[in-house]
């Protein structure tokens, strides 16, 4: 700060604005100590000396020509050339150390000084001894200053990388992750970065020593690994009607035993005849269906008992669902009791036995669909004839899942959570480019919930290593839906305490969860031109000003606005040397 370049005097000061005048002759390009210095105007930095130990830093945002006659009342007088520049204060340097925020402001009449490289290096930590950080590019108006982004500062909170298609957001993300990967030895053991790779942009990270790439065919889960919260997130059951059916269905699907299932079939049949709430024809059809299932499940040794039931059932009229014989119905149930080894248990007692005594096993989506249908039948047999109309939607969604995903994603032989846990790589790339939006949402919410749960279960916080969940094209599945059980909202609020962080990459910020965006600590924002997105950013990003938002549509490709909590915003030109090219649009014309 020994080479002070005086620009001009301060003429007006407000809480958030400082005006000073400049003579054009005083801001011509000069060379000091072999360094070319030039005032470029907007986005330049200036400072004001408060005392011997304290200076205030400000950033220029308006330059105005204020040329006027030397003699006010004589229009033919020579003109006095003068510029008026507006700057907003951003921080202070005290005893050679920069801190964001301002407690002191200059007085009118004080000199304004140009902030050269010596000052800028202090502001942007160029001379720090801390090596655990990022340098992703230079200042847009000074290619010799590459701001240092403290790794511990940035990675101690959630991150968002936003921008229109083609603005450079994917390149910025790749630059960040490549630098972190190259510095992996500085990261804590068991630190993990999980990247949901929607466009196959990050495969190069999996090829490095600290990377592991999972193909889509390797990604999957066993339905049993889903807990009730996962199924509720997937199927969205209504609280009063559908959720109890889903709970019962999961019990029946996970804990199955032939003997218990036979008893359930028997009790459903008995209830259908006892309650009399169902039509005779439908009752006959259901009974006939369940009898065939019982025949297949009972031990082969029960040939006589099976024959007796078949004979008694043959005397029932399919049209009226009854038998003309006086004791025909009693005879049928007596024989059915013998076949099923029924011991006078109630339906609820059998369900309780299943819950308490049976061993869990793997199950498929088709098993769960069968179990939910059985749960509906149990309710119907107890007289609730309207239950199927209110719960059929769950069955429809389950069958749709079975059709779409049972062969590739839902598999008892796959467990991506265990695969990730058992892999020592710090960078895990998950190829999800072939996933549709439904599967992408299903998988991302499932994995996020599992990771947060496991982090919460870690009792020794000193051993807790951070996990970063990187969601590319996040607007496809991290939606603003008002669901109180939204796992992304929960992680955004609670994750920091358990070392679980979100890194959100999106071209449509207005479609993202406002809860998530409000909890972001550091933003990397590229060009955004959509008015809805611009308004959304202004209203929901705490660290962004109106000036920043006005600038966003004009930013060139590869330029990013960095805005961090308790800090100010500044623009960088991202250095993409050595970074694989992002996927390009398919063009119609020959080169």
Automatic annotation (TrEMBL):
SMART domains recorded: AAA
GO MF, one annotated term: ATP binding
Cited Pfam families: DUF87
Keywords, ordered alphabetically: ATP-binding, Nucleotide-binding
Protein's UniProt keywords contain Nucleotide-binding: yes
AAA+ ATPase domain mapped to chain residues: 155-538
SUPFAM superfamilies with a match to the protein in the record: P-loop containing nucleoside triphosphate hydrolases
Stored InterPro entries: AAA+_ATPase, HerA-like, HerA_central, P-loop_NTPase
Name listed for the protein in its UniProt record: ATP-binding protein
Organism: Limosilactobacillus reuteri (Lactobacillus reuteri)
């Amino acid at each position: 700060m020994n080479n002070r370049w005086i620009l001009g005097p301060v003429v007006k000061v407000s809480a958030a604005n400082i005006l000073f005048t400049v003579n054009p002759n005083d801001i011509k390009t000069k060379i000091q100590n072999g360094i070319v210095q030039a005032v470029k105007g907007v986005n330049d930095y200036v400072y004001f000396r408060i005392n011997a130990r304290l200076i205030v830093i400000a950033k220029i945002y308006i330059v105005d020509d204020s040329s006027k006659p030397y003699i006010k009342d004589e229009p033919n007088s020579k003109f006095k050339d003068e510029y008026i520049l507006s700057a907003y204060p951003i921080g202070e340097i005290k005893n050679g150390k920069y801190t964001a925020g301002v407690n002191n402001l200059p007085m009118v009449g004080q000199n304004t000084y140009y902030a050269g490289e010596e000052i800028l290096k202090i502001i942007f930590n160029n001379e720090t001894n801390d090596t655990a950080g990022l340098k992703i590019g230079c200042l847009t108006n000074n290619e010799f200053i590459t701001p240092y982004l403290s790794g511990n500062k940035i990675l101690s909170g959630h991150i968002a990388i936003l921008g229109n298609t083609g603005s450079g957001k994917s390149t910025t993300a790749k630059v960040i992750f490549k630098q972190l990967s190259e510095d992996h030895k500085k990261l804590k053991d068991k630190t993990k970065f999980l990247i949901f790779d929607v466009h196959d942009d990050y495969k190069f990270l999996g090829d490095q020593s600290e990377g592991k790439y999972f193909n889509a065919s390797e990604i999957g889960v066993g339905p049993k690994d889903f807990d009730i919260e996962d199924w509720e997130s997937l199927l969205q059951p209504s609280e009063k009607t559908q959720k109890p059916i889903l709970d019962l269905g999961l019990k029946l699907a996970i804990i199955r035993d032939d003997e218990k299932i036979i008893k359930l079939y028997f009790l459903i049949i008995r209830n259908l005849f006892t309650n009399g709430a169902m039509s005779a024809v439908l009752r006959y059809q259901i009974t006939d269906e369940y009898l065939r299932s019982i025949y297949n499940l009972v031990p082969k040794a029960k040939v006589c008992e099976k024959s007796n039931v078949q004979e008694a059932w043959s005397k029932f009229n399919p049209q009226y669902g009854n038998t003309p014989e006086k004791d025909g119905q009693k005879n049928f149930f007596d024989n059915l009791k013998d076949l099923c080894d029924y011991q006078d248990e109630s339906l609820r007692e059998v369900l309780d036995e299943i819950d308490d005594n049976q061993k869990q096993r793997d199950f498929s989506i088709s098993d769960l669909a069968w179990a939910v249908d059985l749960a509906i039948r149990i309710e119907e047999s107890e007289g609730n004839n309207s239950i199927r109309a209110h719960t059929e939607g769950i069955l429809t969604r389950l069958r749709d899942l079975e059709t779409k995903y049972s062969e590739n994603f839902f598999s008892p032989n796959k467990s991506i959570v265990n695969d990730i846990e058992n892999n020592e790589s710090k960078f895990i790339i998950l190829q999800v480019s072939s996933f549709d939006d439904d599967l992408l949402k299903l998988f991302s919410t499932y994995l996020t919930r599992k990771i947060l749960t496991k982090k919460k279960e870690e009792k020794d916080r000193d051993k807790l290593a951070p996990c970063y969940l990187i969601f590319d094209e996040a607007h496809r599945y991290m939606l603003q839906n008002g669901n109180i059980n939204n796992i992304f909202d929960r992680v955004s609020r609670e994750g920091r305490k358990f070392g679980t962080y979100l890194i959100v990459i999106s071209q449509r910020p207005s479609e993202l969860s406002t809860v998530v965006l409000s909890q972001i600590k550091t933003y990397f924002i590229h060009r955004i031109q959509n008015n809805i997105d611009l308004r959304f950013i202004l209203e929901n990003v705490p660290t962004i000003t109106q000036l920043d938002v006005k600038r966003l549509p004009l930013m060139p490709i590869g330029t990013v606005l960095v805005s961090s909590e308790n800090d100010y915003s500044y623009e960088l030109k991202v250095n993409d040397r050595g970074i694989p090219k992002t996927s390009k649009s398919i063009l119609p014309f020959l080169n």
